[in-house]
Write a structure and sequence with these properties.
This protein is of the alpha/beta class. It is built from eleven helices and 18 strands. The longest helix has 17 residues. Catalyzes the final step of sucrose synthesis.
Length: 418
């Protein structure tokens, strides 16, 4: 959060499974569309928050499985854990708040008396969250009975049923909605409350997000019946909440446009990305060039000298490129290397995405840009940290003066291209 000196232009708070991440989209296209949009137009002055029922263990597993970018804030374990940044620094104040009228041992003792409850994996049992599975027809009885018992024992708890099977027991002050309210209050205190906040969800444990005053909300088209019923009963007439016509991340993109919160045209949806020179921002330039490289290797652009000449014009002839292996080249030589790789990933699940694009202006016409670049091909994935110097060539173009790549993580053959 400290990277923003003023209030965020937009804060997106999104659930992950079946909201930001579409588990029925084998190519992850909607997620990749969102990634490109965010890094191009929003990363520099906005905040991305992932709010998930997953524990830290399962959250990290998902990040290894899907082409996800890094959020500024991560809310996990159904709103019981808040962490910041790439290193996931915990919010100690939130932990102290949740300790009020909460005793994990008493909750476990009483819950164990219900034969209808099946304990979830140990990774899902957290300091302020105890999780079970329960059949749908037993859920209401168990929830009401257990709530009454725990109240008599002096605890103030919240029981959330979602997904038609998951039952989570939390402190009363916890939950996705309360975690968001806590963050907004924290921003308010610092004089940095986001200009606009968009919440996104698909299931019952996301309902609280839509109850926060003043936020925009989108229920993705594939939202579960439990959330749609809650919406119809509680906030049906709220014009700031919509049920999208698109699935998952595509529904989030749809909502950005519907509420006029900013551009919602992802670079991945631009028909001729090579000619898209309207935005000369560093973020857009980084996304565009990496997307062009992906399309070239997938043979999704025309193989022509004109295309290669256009790429070469972007690089400063005297610039340098340091490969992840440590070898150093003239930056323009990369185009010659790229020329030989046309179509080498055709028909394969090959994708490139960038993450955490951070640009710092170091002169009147120059920027130092840092970001992580990832390539995946099937189940293989490799990543590298990039440091790039861009200089404005004219009113429409940015020139790549220097590129330094350092291996972040890799799997399989080392076949890096810029």
């Amino acid at each position: 959060m400290d990277r923003l000196k003023s209030p965020a232009r937009l804060m997106i708070v999104s659930d992950l499974d079946h909201t930001m991440v579409d588990h029925h989209d084998a190519e992850n296209l909607s997620l990749l569309r969102f990634n490109a949009l965010w890094e191009s137009y929003y990363r520099h002055d906005s905040l991305l928050v992932f709010s998930t029922g997953r524990s830290p263990t399962l959250y990290k597993e998902l990040r290894n499985e899907k082409p996800m970018i890094t959020p500024d804030i991560t809310i996990m374990s159904v709103g019981t854990e808040i962490t910041y940044g790439k290193s996931m620094v915990p919010d100690d104040g939130w932990e102290e708040f949740l300790n009020q009228k909460w005793d994990r041992n008493i909750v476990m003792e009483e819950a164990s008396k219900f034969s209808e409850l099946t304990r979830q994996a140990e990774t899902e049992q957290r300091p302020h969250k105890i999780s079970f599975y329960v059949k749908k027809d037993k859920a209401q009885h168990v929830t009401e009975s257990l709530s009454e018992i725990l109240k008599k024992r002096g605890l103030d708890v919240k029981i959330i049923y979602s997904g038609g099977i998951d039952l989570d027991i939390l402190p009363q002050g916890a939950g996705k909605g309360q975690a968001l309210a806590y963050l907004l209050k924290k921003f308010e205190t610092e004089g940095k409350r986001p200009v606009n906040t968009l919440v996104c969800g698909d299931s019952g444990n996301d309902a609280e997000l839509f109850s926060i005053p003043g936020v925009y909300g989108v229920m993705v088209s594939n939202a579960q019946e439990e959330l749609l019923q809650w919406h119809a009963k509680n906030v049906k007439d709220n014009p700031k909440i919509i049920h999208a016509t698109e699935r998952c991340a595509s529904g989030i993109i749809e909502a950005i446009g519907h509420f006029k919160l900013g551009t919602n045209l992802s670079p991945r949806n631009v028909s001729d990305i090579a000619k898209d020179g309207e935005n000369a921002s560093p973020g857009h330039e980084i996304v565009k060039m990496n997307l062009l490289c992906e399309k070239w290797r997938r043979a999704e652009v025309e193989k022509s000298e004109q295309f290669l000449a256009g790429l070469k014009a972007v690089y400063d002839p005297s610039g340098t490129y340091i490969h992840p292996s440590g070898s150093e080249h003239h930056i323009g030589e990369h185009v010659n290397i790229l020329k030989e790789s046309f179509g080498d990933k055709k028909g394969k699940q090959y994708r490139i995405w960038v993450d955490g694009v951070l640009a710092t202006q170091i002169g009147s016409d120059a920027w130092l840009v840092k970001f992580d670049k990832w390539e995946s091909c099937g189940e293989k994935r490799q990543g590298c940290v990039n440091t790039v110097i861009l200089r404005k060539k004219d009113s429409d173009r940015l020139t790549w003066v220097h590129v330094h790549q350092t291996k972040l993580e890799q799997s399989g053959k080392d076949d890096w291209l810029l």
